[in-house]
Task: structure prediction
Amino acid sequence: MAKTRNLLFEPCISDISYDFLEHSKLYSYQAKEYSERLNAVMSSDYFMRNISHHSIELGFCEEYDLVINTPLPPLAKALNQLNQERSSQRNYDPDNKLSLQDLSQFLYLSYSITQRFDPLLLIPPRRNIPSGGGLYPIDVYVINQLIEELPLGVFLYDLFSSKLKLIHAFKDREELKVALNTTLFAEQKNDIDYSNSSAFMVLGAELERSCFKYLDRGIRWAMIEAGEIVQSMYLASGSLAMRTCAIGGFNDEALAQLISYQNPSQITLLALSLGK
Ligand SMILES: Cc1cc2nc3c(=O)[nH]c(=O)nc-3n(C[C@H](O)[C@H](O)[C@H](O)COP(=O)(O)O)c2cc1C
Result:
């Protein structure tokens, strides 16, 4: 490949991948059918029992016991405790809202720079999560509902400056309510206590950031990275005595509009509710 090619300006996501991304979007007209399907699975003892106990059938093979009952070093103990406590928490205390400090600590522990750029050694900045090629295609957005020190609005979390950048301010609570209903189907779904969640996190991917190097395969790495951040958010929330839950059912187009994505290569991969 010629060295002079400017990879940054070449289209790198195939039409087929865009078709897939389009097909996997959820629109408001599908929301009812989608949640009926989910409820059908979740209300069935048979499905729930079998799904949660599944494993790959290998037939006969040799087996070796793992040795896990040995004492753990202190950091490992802390991680083990966090792992035991991690769970999806769907209800939030209406009398115990998050403060800006709570949110700041949560964001810092979930996703932050752990090593700054060293121009002498040309070491790029490092974050608390691994990233295919160190390209970090995920952006974290915050929708504030109940945090009093912040306006009601949508923010980009800038982890370089540790600032929240206001993208959209809601005129009033009513506009926020309509936005949550349109984007997260807050009034149509009763799985999560949307109205008492202090804030919502939105994980948006800029796929080009990963695909310019890895082509369509970069889409996989972006999805994996969103998973890493979700897990990190769950553990951060557990360590700070907060409650969080992933939200997979959202209106892709409405969220894209609310966040003002600028390119079709920007997509939302997941949202989360956060409270106490
Ligand atoms: C990608 C993804 C999407 C999810 N979407 C939802 C959702 O829309 N609503 C919900 O109540 N829980 C959602 N969850 C939470 C799962 O239901 C939960 O993780 C699972 O039941 C296991 O329970 P646990 O997290 O408490 O261990 C989602 C989790 C993931 C990872």
Observations:
- The mean pLDDT is 93.
